[in-house]
Sequence to fold (212 residues):
Amino acid sequence: MSTQTEVLTRFREIVAIDGWDATWKEQVTPWEKWDGGEIQPPLRNVIESDRVEWPRQGQALVPGCGRGNDARFIATSLGLKVTGIDISPTAVEAAQQETPHDNVSFRVGDFFAPTDEQFDLIYDYTFFVALPPSMRPEWGRQMAKLVKTGGFLITLVFPIDPQVDYGPPFFVRPNHYEEVLGSVWEKVIDEVPAAISPSHVGRERIIVWKRL
Fold:
């Protein structure tokens, strides 16, 4: 059985040579193995809590949606119409083959593509860390364009591991999000989650931002 390090090394090799879609085609998707295909407990807890006045109608976006579990959970919990996008056609096909939901759609898409769409909620879990750090400022600018005034961005910061100069996932700290989001956001939650997956202990933080 391959170790976590060996799987990550193979995953990075595939991304570097053949791109993200190849990782899905070859079923080298380590996050699925370690997360068990489950909704991350911090997302479940923050959505189901009354700490934030979440929108109950409108549109949500999950970039880098993968198999789409998070998108379906948000739609079921909040009643939003959720779009999941992924750069991998194989991932989108996998998402579409899962249990359908009337308020969820999936498509192959580029998060950075120009668009007039805006959303009441965006959820980022491992999308930020999948991007080379040089792309993070553009991520921040695009988030400011995509989230409506008064809307929310949920960032589940993971993995908070010792610094390395390679990826994905690339080295991340919570302040890296703040540096590129700028002054048009207000933090409404910023904490180490109370409920957390065993493999995420000591490596995760949840931050909820409100667009000003």
Observations:
- The CA atoms of residues 135 and 201 lie 27 Å apart.
- The beta strands are 59-63, 81-86, 104-108, 119-125, 147-157, 185-191, 205-211.
- The first strand starts at residue 59 and ends at 63.
- The chain has a mean pLDDT of 93.
